[in-house]
Design brief:
Radius of gyration: 24 Å
CATH architecture of the largest domain: Alpha-Beta Barrel
Strand content: 5-15%
Number of strands: 18
Oligomer: single chain
Number of domains: 2
Number of helices: 19
CATH superfamily of the largest domain: Trimethylamine methyltransferase-like
CATH topology of the largest domain: TIM Barrel
């Protein structure tokens, strides 16, 4: 991993303090689980849900509006097409899904940052899509391109994040028809981690592919996956032409797509867990099957964005037991299909990075780890039901992602971990602070937060009695102050600049 400064050798406390404060751009490798997945449904329940999903596809069907090309592909594959409605005979969707890979590598421009999505791996990516941002100084406001750039830098500097993400906030000061160019340019130049492409219009998906050809080389892009992008289904059971047009571009070019229903239980799906899982499975199978009709072997992810609804206000709720049940069940369904799984994140409904945000986020993150998620979008920075990207919560969440890494390691049982020598050395009534085993292992023994305060009350009080949000504000400032842009071939940078300038000049600004 690249570092801005090598830690020198030296003795004494000053040297150790200097080493601890050295600027590091180290990024942890994606998580490889050594713990079991939590399986909440037995085989009989899973078979019932799978059978019911087949009934939904065959008898009710799904809609592909304003998309004659998609309807013709389905008709040729053996589906029954009436108007925009596609009814898929029992077993056809599942059979088509079999050509999708069970895992794939997404390449980054820095090969050390490549990620493998699928299997027992977990890749963490930041918040996606909010039109607003919040920080302690400026409060809640519409996002700008400057905010976007800062989030990309924070993601690059965050050790436990493996992926730069996509629309980390929606920069409203840039025309709608051109902002995707600036966002992609930021991900490509301000970070060297993997990133996502634009899906808001098929031509913007094509721009994403074309910019990747500049960054990686045209042949490399055709032979390798360099983007994982989000394709949302308009639940219930509607596949709009814009998203399907973007999916077509990515699939044709061997780029990955998360096929993800957008479920708010009680609004876009039934209030029951089993009913929601049935709809999720039906929608995902139809979407992934369609991607394989476009190109067999196109990489995809079984997605499930799931929340419940407050029946009094109609507002979405997060970190709830029902959402956990659905996520655990969806993970089992994805594994039975041998597909990578996307779900969970730093979900919360709170307006501030407060106790509500922390409780709901902790529930959602742990749920994601235990359910077998392979690609976790929204892993840090999410606030106010996804309307806000919060700078303070971004670093709070990113810090806590370290706990997922350590939990996923499981329990070591080698001779050192058994620690019998330490127990013999200390014996009854002693303590382990100075024993040889502690001295040999203390640096790596426990996960340590880079943000939270563990100091005694008196020290904490003398330092200003700072709460977590205040500490997070200081960490945002430190990370942005320490940021150093990763190197890039000047010729590639020049070509990217020229492409963006040319595409922006080709059409008038539009904010619609």
């Amino acid at each position: 991993m690249a570092e801005s400064a090598r830690r020198g050798r030296g003795g004494g406390g000053a040297a150790r303090r200097a080493a601890r404060s050295a600027v590091s751009f180290e990024t942890a490798k994606y998580i490889e689980r050594n713990i079991p997945n939590f399986e909440i449904l037995n085989d009989e329940a899973l078979e019932i849900i799978e059978r019911n999903a087949d009934i939904v596809l065959e008898e009710i069907g799904v809609n592909f509006p304003d998309n004659p090309e998609a309807l013709e592909l389905w008709r040729a594959a053996g589906a029954n097409v009436t108007g925009d409605r596609v009814r898929i005979p029992r077993g056809l969707a599942r059979e088509l899904c079999k050509t999708a890979p069970s895992e794939y590598t997404q390449h980054a421009r820095n090969p050390d940052r490549n990620v493998v999505i699928g299997g027992r791996n977990l890749v963490l990516a930041p918040v996606y899509g909010p039109p607003f941002v919040r920080d302690a100084e400026g409060g809640r406001r519409y996002a700008t391109m400057d905010d976007f750039n800062k989030f990309v830098k924070l993601g690059y500097m965050s050790k436990w994040l493996h992926h730069s993400g996509g629309t980390v906030c929606e920069p409203t000061d840039v025309p709608v028809n051109k902002r995707h160019l600036d966002m992609l340019h930021a991900h490509m130049t301000l970070s060297d981690k993997p990133f996502m492409g634009s899906v808001t219009e098929p031509s913007r998906a094509q721009d994403s592919v074309d910019m990747c050809k500049i960054l990686f080389g045209a042949d490399f892009v055709q032979q390798n996956t360099v983007m994982t992008s989000l394709i949302n289904i308009n639940s219930p059971m509607t596949f709009d032409d814009v998203m399907m047009g973007a999916l077509k571009v990515f699939a044709e070019n061997n780029q990955a797509a998360v096929i993800s229903p957008f479920i708010v239980g009680g609004a876009m799906a039934p209030v029951s867990v089993a009913g929601t899982l049935t709809q999720v499975l039906a929608e995902v199978m139809a979407g992934i099957a369609y991607s394989q009709l476009i190109r067999k072997g196109a990489p995809v992810i079984f997605g499930a964005f799931v929340t419940s609804i407050d029946m009094n206000s109609g507002a979405p709720t997060f970190g709830t037991p029902e959402a956990a049940h659905i996520t655990y069940g969806a993970g089992q369904l994805a594994r039975r299909m041998k597909l990578p799984f996307r779900s969970a994140g730093s979900f919360c409904g709170s307006k501030l990075p407060d106790a509500q945000a922390a409780y709901e986020t902790a529930n959602s993150l742990n749920m994601g780890l235990l359910s077998g998620v392979n690609f976790m979008l929204h892993a840090c920075g999410w606030l106010e039901g996804g309307l806000v990207s919060s700078f303070e919560k971004f670093v709070m969440d990113a810090d806590q992602l370290g706990t997922l890494h350590h939990l996923a390691r499981g329990i070591e049982m080698d001779e050192n971990a058994q620690a019998l020598d330490a127990i013999r050395e200390v014996g009854p009534g002693g303590h382990y602070l100075g024993c040889a085993h502690t001295q040999a292992n203390f640096k790596q023994a426990f996960w340590k937060s880079d943000l939270l305060d563990y100091k005694p009350f008196e020290t904490w009080s003398d330092e200003g009695a700072r709460d977590t949000q205040t500490l997070a504000t200081a960490r945002v400032e430190k990370l942005l102050g320490d940021y150093v842009q990763p190197p890039m071939d000047p010729a590639i940078r020049e070509a990217l600049d020229a492409f963006v300038a040319e595409r922006k000049a080709a059409e008038p600004d539009s904010f619609m």
